[in-house]
Design brief:
Radius of gyration of chain B: 19 Å
CATH class of the largest domain in chain A: Alpha Beta
Helix content of chain B: 25-40%
Shape of chain A: globular
Structural class of chain A: alpha/beta
Order of helices and strands of chain B: HEHEHEHEHEHEEHEHHEHH
Oligomer: heterodimer
CATH topology of the largest domain in chain B: Rossmann fold
Number of domains of chain A: 2
Distance between the termini of chain A: 13 Å
Strand content of chain A: 15-25%
CATH superfamily of the largest domain in chain B: Aspartate/ornithine carbamoyltransferase
Radius of gyration of chain A: 21 Å
Number of strands of chain A: 19
Helix content of chain A: 25-40%
Number of helices of chain A: 12
CATH superfamily of the largest domain in chain A: Metal-dependent hydrolases
CATH topology of the largest domain in chain A: TIM Barrel
Largest sheet of chain B: 5 strands, parallel
Chain lengths: 439, 321
């Protein structure tokens, strides 16, 4: 395995130093490092962060390989600085058995761009009626720890309670897609002044907040771990803050798009902005940023949701919900959180790597950049500026809401256990490296 | 004017221009030979994804009386039933050389999408989209109101008058009504004072930002109104807890004989149709002398002539002789 010296990088934004990556491990940290045969990487001006961990990725395989595959989605992840992703369960067939989660896990191993950790469905077929075999998925080769019916809410309170209780046996967590289904029947966008004008059925924030409130109380009652997916409203933030102050074992994530975009953009009926939960108000964005800064929200999770152009290049109501996010996440976080002074780079490392790794129980990710840690890290150039061109992205789909937008900061290198998956901004194929190094 | 997607696209002068042009068009329709040569050689496509015989026939009559070639494309019995997308349909129409596309669609924003996605190059006229807007309905309602409440353009005047100070009630299912949305925008532009009257369940969240007043009390709102527009209540609302029963709705928000007596002498009664007689409007009210419901239909043709004419032929005074 090639040895790398990352020269003059700034770990978590601190003073420049060198990192020596050897045999999959950070062998040494300090100025002026060198090693025989090592490849030198000029890291001047680059911030070194532990590799990002996404708690919420839709890889679409099996079933919708026309939108994304495990291979294409994990390439996109590597390009975005990620070293681990949690692949959501709403595939076809649904990842509700040991067989499906092992298939996804194996595809991830073969692609070798990032570690793929399948999320298991909470209920059979995401139907919300009876528990899937959670224990079998936990015991499988995929070692599932995060369970979610994402796309659907576990709306039945008894079923949610049982799921929360049951996964305690293997230290699992239920990641809830908080959406009261009756309040959001046919919902198209955030319910407010603009939905009234546009004549689009509203998705009221209360439909999220009611479930978050119920679930934190349930989690407290049964002493279980709860994770709230893609928090989108200021009201949810208040409930989470209250719950954490009471000691409830709840964690939460926010997507990059909810940190930057608001519902005003829907005015043009462009389906690329259709997403669930919907884009909300500027006040919600401010509350989400504040919550991510103070740790009420633990993690940034992309909810990367690739869709084919057939499902997006149509009228709003017919369009699928979701947007891609893996390749733009870091830039959005830099613009929304770092450049606003809300988070420093250590904070970014915490919210994009350390905490999500802990929530997913991934021992090899989110580790400090110290000698002895896995060489699983990301180099970011905060000074870079780039324009989003959907046609050249690694994801197989084109439904980014940021097309044409100038982004701030760029991931230039990603290392997974000492092997570069991205170097000088270019994806590095694993099989080619086996033949003779990363070039 | 490139497209007509929302009544909000019309500024005060443009709105008056459409109304004045509609009146000129109406005058030509009193002649023995109603057909004008204005849009000869132009193609207007009526693209109807939703059943609406009334609106389609109105647009068809309008285009034909301007001598345009009319193609009717309805979702039923076409490739749309086989799953062809709006995009592919639009590309097909573009290839056939449509100069204007009149679109009725069940999805809010579909006309906007058609006009902005680059699929067609012609003018797009919104003939009703989901629960969003129905701008030509608002225009024909304004023509009707102006006729009764203001009077026609005086000979020699540069432009007709607007509806400044006229009080208009719009009563019923505002939440799901594209007619209400377009009327609120256009009537505000024309200076009218609009009050929406509905049970709270049928007013959208966010309605307080609209340029109008709201009320839950029909009886209290009726005195002093110049026009009362009743909205259709769709059958599917009955079972979704918007109101307890059809009878209770009718008692609280229906226009019946008793409420007719609360109206001022000059007040007109309007309805965009089709009516649910006995629910939002009683037969007494629908058929009374102050009802303009049939006149509205007639004004629909001249308003749509005006819209197609202004979009496709340009300025107002040439060609309508």
């Amino acid at each position: 395995m090639t040895t790398y010296v990352l020269r003059g990088v700034r770990p978590l934004g601190a003073d420049p130093t060198d990192l020596l990556l050897r045999d999959g491990t950070i062998a040494d940290v300090g100025p002026g490092l060198a090693a025989d045969g090592a490849v030198l990487v000029d890291g001047t001006g680059l911030v070194a962060l532990p590799g990002f961990v996404d708690l919420h990725t839709h890889l679409r395989e099996p079933g919708r390989e026309d939108a994304e595959t495990v291979a294409s989605g994990t390439r996109a992840a590597a390009a975005g600085g990620f070293t681990a992703v949690h692949a959501m369960a709403n595939t076809e067939p649904v990842a509700d058995t040991a067989g499906v989660v092992e298939q996804v896990w194996r595809l991830g191993r073969e692609a070798a761009w990032v570690d793929v950790h399948p999320v298991g469905a909470v209920t059979v077929g995401l139907a919300g009626e009876r528990l899937a075999e959670l224990g079998a998925m936990a015991d499988s080769a995929a070692r599932v720890r995060v369970f979610s019916d994402d796309g659907h809410c576990v709306a039945d309170a008894v079923l949610m309670r049982r799921a929360l209780e049951y996964v305690k046996a293997f230290d699992g967590v239920i990641a809830q897609h908080a959406q009261e289904p009756r309040l959001t029947h046919g919902a198209q966008m955030h319910e407010g002044e603009l939905s009234a004008v546009l004549g689009l059925a509203g998705w009221p924030a209360v439909a999220e907040e009611a479930i978050v409130a119920r679930d934190v109380l349930l989690a407290q009652h049964v002493g279980s771990r709860l994770h709230v997916c893609h928090v989108s409203s200021a009201g949810s933030v208040e409930i989470l803050r209250w719950a954490k102050a009471r000691g409830v074992a709840v964690t939460a994530e926010v997507t990059p798009h909810h940190l930057l975009l608001t519902h005003d953009l829907v005015r043009g009926y462009d389906p690329r902005l259709k997403v669930n939960p919907p884009l909300r108000t500027a006040d919600d964005v401010a509350a989400l940023r504040g919550a991510l800064a103070d740790g009420t929200i633990d993690a940034v999770a992309t909810d990367h949701a690739p869709h084919t152009s057939e499902d997006k290049d149509c009228e709003w109501q017919a369009a699928a919900m979701g947007m891609t996010g893996l390749e733009t996440a870091l830039s959005v976080v830099q613009e929304a959180m770092v450049e606003t002074g809300l988070l420093d780079w250590a904070g970014v490392a915490d919210r994009m790597s350390t905490r999500p790794a802990r929530i997913g129980r991934l021992a090899e990710h989110g580790q400090p950049l110290l000698a002895g840690s896995p060489a699983t890290l990301t180099l970011v150039d905060p000074a870079a500026r780039w324009d989003v061109d959907p046609a050249v992205m690694a994801t197989a789909s084109r439904n980014t809401p940021f097309a044409g937008r100038r982004m701030h900061g760029r991931v230039v290198a990603t290392f997974l256990r000492g092997r570069p998956t991205l170097l000088d901004g270019r994806l590095q194929d694993a099989t080619a490296q086996g033949a003779g190094g990363a070039r | 004017m490139r497209h007509l997607l929302s009544a909000g696209d019309l500024d005060h002068d443009t709105a008056l221009l459409v109304l004045d042009t509609a009146e000129q068009m109406a005058a030509t329709q009193q002649r023995e030979i109603k057909k004008l040569p204005t849009l000869r050689g132009r193609t207007v496509v009526n693209l109807f994804f939703e059943d609406s015989t009334r609106t389609r026939i109105s647009f068809e009559a309008a285009a034909k009386r301007l001598s345009a070639d009319v193609i009717n494309f309805s979702a039923k019995g076409s490739s749309l039933a086989k799953g062809e997308s709006l995009k592919d349909t639009a590309l097909t129409l573009q290839a056939m050389g449509a100069d204007a596309v009149v679109i009725r669609h069940q999805a809010s924003g579909a006309p906007h999408r058609l006009a902005t996605a680059g699929w067609v190059h012609g003018c797009v006229v919104n003939a009703g989209d989901g629960t969003h807007e129905h701008p030509t309905q608002a225009l024909l309602d304004a023509v009707t109101m102006r006729h009764h409440l203001v009077g026609m353009r005086r000979p020699g005047a540069a432009a007709g008058r607007d509806l400044a100070g006229r009080r208009v009630l719009i009563v019923g299912d505002v939440l799901h009504s594209r007619v209400a949305r377009s009327n609120v925008l256009l009537l505000h532009t024309l200076g009218a004072d609009v009050t929406l009257v509905a049970p709270p369940t049928l007013l959208p969240v966010g309605v307080d930002s609209w340029p109008c007043a709201t009320s839950y009390d029909l009886d209290a709102s009726l005195p002093g109104a110049d026009a009362v527009m009743m909205l259709r209540v769709q059958a599917e609302r009955m079972h979704a807890a918007y109101f307890p029963s059809a009878r209770e709705y009718s008692r609280r928000y229906g226009l019946d004989a008793r409420r007719l007596r609360l109206l001022d002498e000059h007040t007109i009664v309007m309805h965009p149709g089709p009516m649910n007689r006995g629910l939002e409007i009683s037969a007494d009210a629908a058929d009374c002398a102050r009802s303009t419901i049939v006149e509205q239909v007639g004004n629909g043709v001249s308003v749509r002539m005006a819209v197609l004419y202004l979009l496709l032929a340009g300025s107002a005074d040439e060609g309508i002789r």
